[in-house]
Amino acid sequence: MRRKLILIIFLTIVFSGILTFLQGNQAEIYSSSDISFNISGYLLNEGFEGAQFPPLGWDRTHTSWDRTTSRPWVISGTASAANSGSQDQNERRLRTPLLTLSGNTLTPFLYFNAMYGSIGYVEAITIQYSEDDIVWVDLETFPLSDVAQTFTQSLAGLNGNYYLGFLTTGASTGGRKVFVIDDVQIPILSEYLLTVDIAEGQGTVSINGIIPDEFPHSELVIENTQIILNAIPEDGWIFARWIVNGMEYYLDQEIDLIMNDEITATVYFILEPAQPVELTSFTAAFLAENYVQLRWVTETETNFLGYNVLRSMDNKLENASRVNLFIINGTGGSSQSQIYTFIDDFVEFNTTYYYWLEAIDLDLTTNYHGPVSVVTVLEDTEIPPEPEKITKLIGAYPNPFNPGTNIRFELCQPTSVTLTIYNLLGQRVREITQTFNEGKNSIYWDGHDATGKACLSGIYLYSISTESDFIDYNKMIMMK
Prior knowledge:
The protein is an all-beta fold. 0% of the residues lie in helices and 54% in strands. Strands 1, 4, 6, 7, 10, 13, 15 and 18 form an eight-stranded mixed β-sheet that branches.
């Protein structure tokens, strides 16, 4: 008869924290009740019922050790571990995984069932231990009989990581001999105490996947004294940190612990930061006027400054650049729906563009929405209308800028273009002349004057002129 020796330890989960949040000037206090758990578990619990042999982490010095399902040799369940053969079966070891035997307040014991199957021979099992699976030290030798017995071996003095071995000894030669072991167990013997305190915020804690207040006063089985604590915030809250025995954990919402004596864990939740913008829709369309129109609708805006529009020719945000010259102002804060539009007319035909919104909070933190994509081809039109070719100044981008900016323009025909930059006194700072093809082009100014000296911060005027007597002016701001 299989003998199960389960020593019960008590793990008390104390949720004594006070969960507090403010609604106006009124504070609501939430407190959960104390919950007690009876915990039973094993450092080692192997019945050799699985098909794999040796079991995971176990090893053997000879293949004569194997899993048997032959009914005469099965001690309990459907299988046992057996060392059998017609040759000398001495000095053949089956060993356990590496076990952590430290931290127990009571002496651990090894329990196992064993028997032999060769009448007339003196046969025995020797229990050994090793730190490296090379040098083995004998603990005790147990004579066996042809009737299964339960054996107990004290592991007193073993404080650290050890392998345990079952070594067949005492068998004479000749005949067929069978050594059988089963139900190898090392119960958890310490009375561990785990205290979990939810100090701030709203949420709960699961222990090895079990939420305590869903299973009050139940038994929790743990293996190898491993405890997994997981902080589970409620809606509107996020995990902030753990403090476990004085150590702080900011990134680990789930932490693994080995129960050694007493553990005190405190978890903190904080309110989930409100997004500056709650977006209802964000769309992009290519219109007959040959520009892209972006349209977005917000549900709310909180402590909000404004938007930038970012564009890329692939769907990677890190490759996107800003296309608006100035920040698109938000409402500052509104609970009413707002509608925004933006025109991007610096686009090429038959091209795919990806757009993002960069939402900027009043404290200059940013959040991104998107992307939305658009192909600059008109629907239901086989041959798009040829746009009118004109020469025009588009503007400087970025503006304000530091240290340089692109002066963008469109040409109706190939020509040379002169960019002239002036300060507010009307003095010429820099002049750049280049030749361009028709279409959209730009000249880059690096923020230096004609002598190569860096210009000061301030407002500058610039003009674009062509050989066909076209000229236009605008202003830009250098900010350092």
